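**Archive record**
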Amino acid sequence: MSAPPRSTSLSDSSSELEQLESTGSWDDALDWFKLEHPGSRSVLHHANYKFLLEAERVIVEGHGVVLINTDEAGTLIVTNFRLIFLSEETENIVALGTIPLATIEKFSKMVVKNQPAPRQSEKTPSQRLLQVIGRDMKIIVFGFRPKTQQRRAIYDGLLRCTKPSRLWDLYAFSCGPSKFTNANPKVRLLNECFRLLGKGFCSASIDMIDKGSYTLSNELWRISNVNSNYIMCPSYPFALIVPKSISDEELVHASSFRSKGRLPVVSWCHPGTGAVLARSSQPLVGLMMNMRSNTDEKLVAALCSQPDGYKKGRRKLYIADARPRKNALANVAMGGGSESPSHYFQSEVVFFGIDNIHAMRESLFRLRDYLDTHGSTSSDGTLSLLRHGGWTWGGGNLSSMSASVATLGDSGWLIHVQSVLAGSAWIAARVALESASVLVHCSDGWDRTSQLISLANLLLDPYYRTCTGFQALIEKDWLAFGHPFEERMGMPTLSGSSDTSLDLSRQSSVGSFPSSPMRQSSGSSAPQAPSSSHAQNQYSPIFLQWIDCVSQLLRMYPFAFEFSSAFLVDLLDSVLSCRFGNFFCNSEKERQLAGVSESCGCLWAYLAGLRSSEGRSHVHYNLFYSPLKHNGPLLPPAAALAPTLWPQFHLRWACPSEAQAGELEAQCRNMSLKFSELQKAKEGAEKKAEETTNAMESLSAELQNEKRLSSYAMTLAKKANKECAAIKRAIQSLGCKVHFAGGDTPVDIETKRESGVCDAICPLRSRDGGCRWPEAGCAQSCSQFIGVKANYDAIDSLSIYETYFDTREGK
């Protein structure tokens, strides 16, 4: 049974509470709040919340609130960015009860009367609830204590913060670029154009864009700056890839024949065959379907240009109209329509039958209601297992959904996803297998066209299946080519008027929870008055549906994508939250006028920072990615295009157990983390081993050097000893005693001469009676002891062959 919200006993008198409830005064509510919670924190002291983001501030909060989905009590906080639910038990943020304000689609107050139990005479108090419905598949309900004004305070806080009057009132502008600096997206777009033309060695710059010097070309195609001031087509980018044979004047003339001026331009070029994917809007054929444009026909024919040496005959052109044929004919009444094959040489027109934005919006609403009905955390607080007797998958088993699959099919969501996948696969096959060129359009060329052309790009080019390439693909075919994110997401307009599609009815609805566990229909518990505003009519989950299609391809080809399903979920959540400015406004021109890239943070920088924090082991990376396994186009067979619910997104709130990654993927990720840790440990050990080896080699080299020096010193010492011995013998032969000392090598010579002895025994006495001793030192010293330094130069000048060895014996 549905558990009633927990309540706290009130200390005030009943009369005072009744008076407060009847008056509904905001000031009285604040006074009561202070009396009821004397120790609670005031709004001025919420800086202590550590979970608040930069520039995020608390607007209002309520205590003792119950999250009906899980019957959990806590604190509900409205900030200028999020609605946050804190668990009373853990004081942590509860993900199910927390949602960015921009993600909220609508919210309303409800009063539900509980039926008294049998034989219970006392009147049971009504439950005062606040229902919040999000574009991220959330339907959450909060219960408030009776006879308080907390619900009104929270409701008014949401009313003020979820409907900003100007674009610049969004949180992204308050936060600023911060650490997620946004490089100029026009530079990134131009670099992608260079890559498509085979000019990847060129690098774009702001100076190049300002001077208009980016008009490069190859054999078939060129980059035109005809739309640099956004006059020809306000919703197209500043740089366009067009056939080289078509002049800028012809482009301007051809744009007048297409809806919104969105003339045929190239989105992707095959590097080998020269086949292209092109996009445009519908032609303006007129009410009688007899209007023609020679320039438009020439431009479309030029899409079949062939490089030199192409030997497969004339290239065929397919014109893929994403709409049902009847819808294309209906557009004739407004001057639109489709091409006539007879006017476009060797072309074939194909209709894909994909429904419009209104059908997609209603389909997602039905899917969301279905998931809330059969999920394990329903907004009425009753488990699906109890509501349906245990036969639905919402109790925790996705494989046993046979009894409710008809209802899922009635939502039509998977059928729409299959239609988009099938159309994209068909386009990719024509380019890859037939080398044909394909021109894709719908009515205005910015919804279904963006879905088909970008999915075909993804199938054909492996670069777009990497994290960097996926960013380039979105920036090219969604942002630069003017998908109206402002209208499709219900954001405030650049002009300053708010067009958010929120149901802001203050009128409370009255319903009742039945005593049986069966869940009542959502319309009886919270009926919503339909809105006829233009903004609500233009809201549609086109980009969400495309991301869903990408997730289906990721499921079919798990080795082909560098990114994971978790990356897609975080990307989609960031887009819906409006935390970053990349997806603001309807076109590149509007974002430039608003100064978004300079004033707001960059989503791509944020996601790149997350990935770099953990390297390849981060959850955004696909563990099974093998670029060599799928280094060419992906061409899924028709039988494989059977989409399923995307568990990580569709089921994460309604059935959390099913949203978790499969057991095999979880085990692989754990093994990958362990492997990463072991790899780091191995690299550390190898680094230490290398350092040790280098140190040993250095020591060995030093040791060898020391050995060489020691050997050289020993040689010098031996030589010196020999020289000293020879000198000593030479001096001793003079009858002197020689004493060597250290220091500067002083030599003490002791001489003892007797008169006349010198003349007889001196070997240096010449035959003529003269003395050859230098300066007659021996005669001057006589018998005294003197200390002299050895005069090695004088000794070396003596000749040992003169009378030195002459003993004079025998004479």
Q: What stands out?
A: The chain has a mean pLDDT of 79. The two ends are 147 Å apart (CA to CA). The first helix runs from residue 14 to 23.
